[in-house]
Amino acid sequence: MTYVEGFVVAVPTANKEAYRKHAEGAAPLFKEFGATRMVEAWGDDVPDGKVNDFKGAVQAKPDETVVFSWFEYPDRATRDAANEKIMSDPRMKEMGGTMPFDGSRMLYAGFAPIVDDRADGAMGYVDGYLVPVPDGNKDAYRALAEKASAVFRDHGATRVVEAWGDDVPGGEVTDYARAAHKQDGETVVFSWVEWPSKEARVAGWEKVMADERMQPDGSEVPFDGKRMIYGGFAPIVEA
Fold it and tell me: What is the mean pLDDT of the chain?
């Protein structure tokens, strides 16, 4: 398994190409610092929620689009070393002065995967999730996630990752705790499902919802589904 740095940010929709170029330009530096993979995915099917949602998580304005992204590192030590370099490297400081979005509303944190299931196939679409889970339910959540992952992969998903909050700082404007309405004794999980395409995702979800393995079996769900944040995203950078 890898270590994940997860991000959610609101970007002015008119700045999509500028954001893509900004992220694409930063990718070689992050790879130099130790990242093994970098994905930036543009909001495509991001619904409003009754309790919370991705838009509210980053206080997105009507003319902004939510971006769901992550960097993968071999381990936390590599990620920590990379962040130190990011803060001191003059090339990153120069890029930081021209960011095409409001960095004060960015969500960022480190997560340790507890499920990472892969199948053959490329990524063309992503389902992204945030959910608060009681700390005492970590094993139960992992077991449920492993069960669901098998179903997703059987119906076309190419990868399922569930990453447990490990280094999740508070923020002055926004943060993961507020985004997920986290309560005391809970940890935020950052997760995603990769699909070959949006069409595969739509068809796959129909099969997932009809699969008898996903039907309620009377056991207690180990998290509050009402506070789960979810949405569909189209990758614009993968490095």
Answer: 95
Question: In the structure encoding, which two tokens stand for residue 76, read together?
Answer: 């936390």
> Which pLDDT value is given to residue 49?
93
Strand pairing of 159-167 and 107-118?
A: antiparallel
* Residue 166 CB partners (closer than 8 Å, separation 6+): 3, 76, 109, 110, 111, 112
Bridge partners, 116 (sequence order): 161
* Residue 119: pLDDT over 70: yes
Residue with tokens 């929709």: 13
Per-residue model confidence as pLDDT tens digits over 176-226: 999 999 999 999 999 999 999 999 999 999 999 999 999 988 888 999 999
Does residue 59 register a pLDDT over 90? yes
Q: Within 10 A of 79 (CB to CB), how many other CB atoms are there?
A: 23
The C-alpha atoms of residue 188 and residue 180 are separated, in whole angstroms, by 7
Q: How far apart are CA 178 and CA 23, in angstroms?
A: 26
The total number of structural domains that make up the chain: 1
Orientation angle between helical segments 76-88 and 16-33, nearest 10 degrees: 120
Which one, of 217, 41, 7, 237, lies nearest residue 125 by Cα? 41
- Count CA atoms closer than 13 A to 97's CA, side-chain side: 4
The domain containing residue 14 runs over which residues? 3-238
CATH of the domain at 47: 3.30.70.100
Indicate the length of the chain as a whole number: 239
Distance CA(87)–CA(162), nearest Å, equals 28
- CA nearest to 78, candidates 110, 108, 107, 116: 110
Query: Over pLDDT 90: what percentage of the chain?
Result: 89
